[in-house]
Amino acid sequence: MGSGGLLLPTVVMLVLNVLSAVMVALVKAAMAGGLDPLVLVTLQQLTAAIFLGPIAHFREGKSRPKMTLEIFAYLFISAALGAAMRQYMVFVGLRYTTATFVSAFSNIAPVLTFVLAVATRSESLHLRTATGAAKLAGTLVSLAGAMLLTFYRGVALTHANSAHQLHRSLSSPPSPETDSGRRWTLGTVAILGNCVCLACWYLLQGRIARKYPYVYSCNAFLSTFSFLQVAVVGLCVQHNLSAWIITNKFQILTVLYSGVVATGMSFVLLTWCIQKRGAVFVAAFIPVSQVIVCIMDFTILHEPLYLGSWPVSSAVGQEAGGLATASKSC
User: What is the DSSP letter of 258?
Assistant: First the structure.
């Protein structure tokens, strides 16, 4: 494929990472205001299904074939991996850790995608060629960078005074009721689960794109199935009906943005990019989101950025909704 065929998918992926970074900021603030992650995922997928349903009907309703059991099974599993489970794990990770930590840890996803692609023969690896060696080297560098950014506790690069004050506050004895260590561990496990689901979803979506190349219908079904999956779990877990009624304008904006833009439009464009360039190409852009989140932290939120990460020990869970905004990594 020539440079023209590579330019447009590259631009699309860069735009999608900006949209994803904005969603992370909105979701984190909305959950700090008390929005439940299960409720958010359910309403997000419902909004995406309502948005994509009419578009799929008018653009592909007459051309798409009848739904077969095989395609239904693919779409149902894809909905569980790519939307229901993955989105919920992302929101849990954001709730119990920080936005930048989530972005840094998510750099493992390209590595998992590449390994699974090679294992399933979706991606060929020719170590004797320059391309194959570059793929392997890029995978190892990505993994090393993710581990460094996640576990290395470095010095503050910006806002040194506020960082020093933060360090002193974190050095104070933790309050027993915060249970910060368990919350951070739970958030980290959730992010790891998100990476596994995302890697599997990229590969599965690539196979679906070959068997059912109707991007609007595919993602409309995906959003519908994921809404039903999360709604069943959510109604069983969250019995308080007041939690499902959102009146806060900012939370409503978050649901609409995450449903229409970050899920509806983004999933369609992601599927298109996977069709054009493959799952490994799409996964390779995940680290871009981390850079955007770091820039937002520094320029908009004026948070201190560190060389590596500074995991929160005693501050996690003290803010509303169990959120912590103190720890930032870059």
Answer: I
Q: CA-CA distance, 78 to 3, in Å (whole number)?
A: 31
Find the angle CA(35)-CA(41)-CA(47) to the nearest 5 degrees.
105
Q: For residues 187 and 96, what is the distance between their CA atoms, to the nearest angstrom?
A: 5
Sign of the Cα pseudo-torsion (76, 79, 80, 84, in order): negative
Half-sphere exposure of 256 (CA within 13 A, CB side): 8
Cα gap 326→313, rounded to integer Å: 10
| Residue 301: DSSP 8-state | S
| DSSP E strands, the chain | none
CB 297 within 8 A of CB 102: no
Distance (Å, rounded) from C-alpha 125 to C-alpha 122? 10
Alpha-carbon distance of 140 to 107, in angstroms, equals: 11
Return the residue matching tokens 């065929």. Answer: 5
What amino acid occupies position 191? Answer: I
Side chain identity at residue 109, one-letter code: A
Instruction: Report pLDDT for 155.
Output: 56
Whole-model pTM? 0.74
Q: Which residues contact 232 (CB under 8 A, 6 or more apart)?
A: none
Q: Is the pLDDT of residue 173 over 60?
A: no
Asked whether 207 and 75 are in contact (CB, 8 A), the reply is: no
Strands (E), 131-257: none
Q: Is it the case that residue 161 has pLDDT exceeding 60? A: no
- Cα–Cα distance for residue pair 157/163, rounded to 1 Å: 9
| Mean pLDDT along residues 130-156 | 62
Model confidence pLDDT, tens digit, residues 55-77: 999 999 888 888 899 999 999 99
Buried b (16+ CB within 10 A) or exposed e, 158-182: ebeeebeebeeebeeebeeebebee
